[in-house]
Amino acid sequence: MGPSVNVLQVTKGALMGGGEKHVLTLLEGFKDEKINVSLAVFAEGRLSEAARELGFEVHIISKRYRGDIAPLVKLISLIKVKNIDIVHTHLISGNLYGRLAGKAARVKGVVSTLHHSHKENMGRFSMPLMQDLFFRLDIKMAALSDCIVAPSANLKSLLVKHGVKATKIVSIPNAVNVKNLNLSEEDVRACLEELSIPPDVKLVGMVGRMVSVKNFELLLKTARRVIDEGIKARFILVGDGPLRSELEKLTASLELGEHVIFTGFREDVFRIVSTFDLFVLCSKSETNPIALIEAMALKKPVIATNVGGVSEIIDHMENGWLCPPEDEIALANSITCLLNCPEKASEFGTNAYQKVVTNFSLKGVTLELLNVYAGLTH
Fold first, then answer.
1. pLDDT per residue over 28-51, tens digit each?
2. Most CB atoms within 10 A, among 101, 241, 243, 316?
3. Is the whole-model pTM more than 0.85?
4. Residue 307: phi, psi to the nearest 5?
5. How far apart are the first and last CA of the chain?
6. pLDDT band at residue 65 under the 50/70/90 scheme
């Protein structure tokens, strides 16, 4: 692909959730490629700041409220002024405005990455009916995209069931830039001291937004069982969200106060995960969870509920452990087993890293997307 191809990535950008982290990782991958990439977001935030630090041009398309028409007009103008060839959209608002603007401006191709297989993963909506409406609308509007990127085969199948043409969909997983994961032993020790972790305590952790679909509640109930088995462990919950206060109340009611640490939102997630003896993901639904892939890239043994596209990442009992969803007994047994068997846990971690290098490398994902762009511009 020649340097004359101009690509505009469009997303909401205010927070730094999985979708935004995915966009930032893509920008890292495009940095050394012969392609002109810029970013359009609807609000200043961590994503726009990080993108500028990487050297990318960032356009702020202010959006005052849900359904505001002004961003659409501004996006169309931006696309024309910058001679954009490909508009690549992400997340609900990015998909909605980016698809319409790309088509109105007659770009060569509109590419949309669908990050969510469950409506609760889209973020907060004041009315559940609106959440359901926007989730369905996002899928229906796939007709405006020339190519749909599905991060998992599971999501691709779901989209086909919803009427999206299979020929429009390409499965490209989320990527991890392994180069970003070089953490020293000093970093790890400093983090352990910061968290006040005694040397004889095992750390079990989970990363995610504190919403219902992530099911932190299950991890807390499981923690009670593990502690009751006599395991010296602390459970680290990394993230924030609307359910945090409820989760803190549940922690107190389960008498887990001294065994659970809520870190809140952290910029240094890799640093905290590097201290874990075990990474757990107990979601009710997932597409291609970046937090799980990142933990595997850090060579952490992982346990996850077998939902959505998770089984495309974890090969059960080879590079991780799959548990039935909503089963705290099975989850507790798997945690106890791996904490009591460090050799098996270490083997899982080593194999997990190899799975990431082979299947989720940034270079490989970048090349796949460049091929998608090339197919639309030629």
1. 999 989 999 999 999 999 899 999
2. 101
3. yes
4. -130, 150
5. 9
6. confident
Is the pLDDT assigned to residue 338 strictly greater than 70? yes
CB 13 within 8 A of CB 42: yes
Position 268, amino acid: D
Mapped onto helix, strand or coil, the DSSP state of residue 86 is strand
Torsion angles phi and psi, residue 377, rounded to 5? -100, -5
Residue 246 neighbours by CB distance under 10 Å = 13
Q: Are 148 and 168 in contact (CB under 8 A)?
A: yes
**Which whole number is the average pLDDT over 238-263?**
97
Give the model's pLDDT for residue 216.
98
Contact 76, 40 (CB under 8 A): no
Question: In the predicted model, what is the mean pLDDT of residues 276-303?
Answer: 96
The contacts found for 149-152 with CB under 8 angstroms, 24 or more apart, are 149/111, 149/112, 149/113, 149/114, 149/369, 149/372, 150/114, 151/113, 151/114, 151/115, 151/287, 151/288, 151/309, 152/117, 152/287, 152/288, 152/308, 152/309, 152/312
Q: What is the DSSP string of 130-195?
A: HHHHHHHHHHHGGGG-SEEEESSHHHHHHHHHTT--GGGEEE----B-GGGG---HHHHHHHHHHT
- pLDDT tens digits for range 199-208: 899 999 999 9
What contacts 123, CB < 8 A, 6 or more positions away? 17, 92
Q: Which residues contact 283 (CB under 8 A, 6 or more apart)?
A: 208, 213, 214, 215, 289, 304, 305, 307, 308, 310, 325
**With 50 as the cut, is the pLDDT of residue 125 above it?**
no
* Helix, strand, or coil (residue 69): coil
Strands 260-264 and 202-207: unpaired
Pair 109, 89: CB distance under 8 Å: no
Task: Give the pLDDT of residue 124.
Answer: 52
